[in-house]
Every structure is written in structure tokens, then in C-alpha cells.
Amino acid sequence: MVVIWNLCIRKAVVAVVLPKVEYDEGSWDYLGFGVCRETTDPKIIKFRSVTWCDIDCLSYVSWQVEFFTLSTGAWRTPFSTIFPSKSIYFSFENYDQVVIDGVHYWLANDISCNLVISFDMTREEFTQINLPDGLAHKSDYPLLSMSKLRESLVVLDHDAHEMVFVVWMMEDGVSKTFTKLFIHYKL
Fold first, then answer.
1. Residue ranges of the chain with pLDDT lower than 70?
2. Residues 6+ apart with CB under 8 A from 162
């Protein structure tokens, strides 16, 4: 069950029962909450991914995506249910989720590289955002994390062996490129 709590009036405005899902080994449900920029209608997105599964099994995975909008009080499939790739998975150790201007961002992995998956709450579509080469091919995926800085997405790269922290900021636009902001060396 999901309860939407309105902080301004200090009461629960609706209780949402999540659609029943049959759980298979290696599957996990992810939730996101946001507001449509055009209608200001609160929305909940639920999608199911397969995690920790071998490559042969991934070709049979279909992503299940559902939406709840407060105005309708019902679950439905989004306008675009096309997920960027069937081989994308999310790590239990790194479940970072950032929301910026109605767009959700998750760190993910696609077989051989790290990336960011975004979901726009207004257009209701997924997008794959590539990370810089140094982050995309980093083998220690759980050492990456995300946050929001000045209304921009930032990715923190932590090198445990060298005790170095690198902060990358995504520049908005068509290319969704990242710029290295700074490097911090722990002495």
C-alpha cells in the first residue's frame, strides 16, 4: 500500500493499493513519486526489473511499467512503455533515485557499462543517458552514487583504493553530457 501524505494540511489524501505482482526469483519492483509539470497531478510510477540474472535469461525479460495518477485514482500503463533495453538492471547496493523538474533518474547497468535511466513524468517515457567513459566502464558499480546539486544531476565516483572522490554534473540539453566539477583527495 502507498499513502500519499499532504504535508501542508497534515493528512493522508489517498491510500493506493499497489497492483498484485507475482514475484519471481531475481525480480524487484521500483517505485517513484513525482508531479506532472503541466497538470501538477501527483503520480506514482512502478516498474519491475530483473536483477542478478544471467545474460541468457535477460532476453526473455519484459519490463512491466504502471502508473497511478491522483486525479483518476487508478493504475494504468504509461503512454510509452518502451524501456531502453531489456538487459538493464539495478543494483540492490545502489538504489539511488533523484528527481529533478519532474524527471526521475536511476543509476543502472547494461551488461558491460554503467548508465543512467530517466523517466519523464509529463511525457511518460524512459530515456537512457550515457555516463562519461571513466564512469561507464567502472567495474565497482556500487561505488557510484547520485544526487541533486543546483537543480542538476550529479554523479559521485568514489575510488575506495585511492581514497578519491570525483563529482560529475550533467549539463542539460539534447546531448546530456557530464562535466567534471571537482576531485577530492582524502589524506
1. 9, 13-15, 18-28, 49-63, 80-87, 89-95, 140-142, 160-162, 172-175, 187
2. none
Within 10 angstroms of residue 134's Cβ, the number of other Cβ atoms is 12
The answer to whether 167 and 180 are in contact (CB under 8 A) is yes
Which amino acid appears at position 52 of this protein? W
Residues in the chain: 187
Other Cβ atoms closer than 10 A to 183: 11
Compute the radius of gyration of the chain from its Cα atoms.
18
- CB atoms closer than 10 angstroms to residue 33: 15
Nearest Cα neighbor of 111 from 154, 155, 157, 50 is: 50
CB-CB neighbours of 90 under 10 Å: 21
How far apart CA 157 and CA 179 sit, in angstroms, is 13
